[in-house]
Amino acid sequence: MAKMIIRAEQQDDEPAVVTVVEQAFKQAGEARLVCHLRADGDAVISLVAVVGGVVVGHVMFSRMVAPFRALGLAPLSVVPQYQQRGIGRSLVKEGLKQAKAQGWEAVFVLGDPAYYERFGFRVDLARGFSSPYAGSHFMALSLGANLPASGGKIGYAPAFASLG
Length: 164
Hints:
The protein is 29% helix and 29% strand. The protein is of the alpha/beta class. The protein has one domain: Gcn5-related N-acetyltransferase (GNAT) (Aminopeptidase), CATH 3.40.630.30. The chain is globular and about 45 Å long. It starts with a strand and ends in an 11-residue tail after the last strand.
């Protein structure tokens, strides 16, 4: 594999990001979500993975309503032929590094615990929070020593309602 570069998404990357997200999810819902988050101004961190000059991966972190400064990680997308090569891991690690540097206190994710626990996300940390996504795949990660609160109501950006 050619050298991979992780960088901030640029405006001219938008069509490639839509293609990556649609290929990764095999449908258009998450790609529309990315566009809505961007248009609404709720996208805080949007990174792409580029291999050989081609965008092959994308991750977005968006603003959440929470009792502290929190982001939601979603979606994470890698085109199928580039999966299982560490691209998703590199995107998540760089996004978390940037979130911490920007002073965000926590990140929430809805996903496979076997995948996201390697970054420090924990189901038990999210358990005290009220969310429509609460359950065995809803996890939190503190970007400091501890979460600033152990419970409360949290909400994803309004664009997530469009996923149904």
